[in-house]
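tool_call predict_complex ligand=5-O-phosphono-beta-D-ribofuranosylamine
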Amino acid sequence: MEEYFRSPKKRGKIAVFLSGRGSNFLAIHEAVKSGKINGDIVLVFSNKKDAPGLQHARERGLETFYLNPKNFPSREAYDAQAAEEVQKRGVDLICLAGYMRILTPGFCQQFMYRMMNIHPALLPAFPGLHVQKKALEWGVRYSGATVHFVTPEVDMGPIILQAVVPVKQDDTEEKLSARILKEEHKIYPEAVRLYFEGKLEVRGRRVFILD
Ligand code: GRF
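tool_result ok
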């Protein structure tokens, strides 16, 4: 992993990758529209034809692109095509927002520090899937959300922002997920905002937020 990175201060081009409902995408889109984020969403990409997030994007007049995994012989070939779509639009930052497909190490390397993800737990606790359920099973008192840079090791990249929520004794997976999601919608746009303000500095595995 590169030791040092400083995010660019510029009007950025953003690609959102999603596979599902797209509520984080919508939160980022709102922040773009209100001028909070100095950037534009130039592509909403999905591996799922019927992802509701793609429909939301179309309704908002954004460019969408669906790439069918079945048409590719390997993950590498799929990701190479995805990378090409991203590159040809001059994308500065990829935001994974519920993109339910493991990215190849090559893709992660290619977009190192130019790709973020949102995860519904306080990493490095509970990486992977069904993490709200796991938080309940473990009886943790607090959980939350994490925005991090994406590296080849799933859910383990440098942490940009986190938000904490309490876990209540009568929580269900749904209730806890909803509480966390509310925080996701705050910290993801905020992380993207900081990125294009040139305020994120990576030193080793730590991300510093500059004044
Ligand atoms: C969120 O919980 C996010 O943390 C996880 O996938 C979910 C996506 O939700 N990575 P949405 O599609 O943004 O509504």
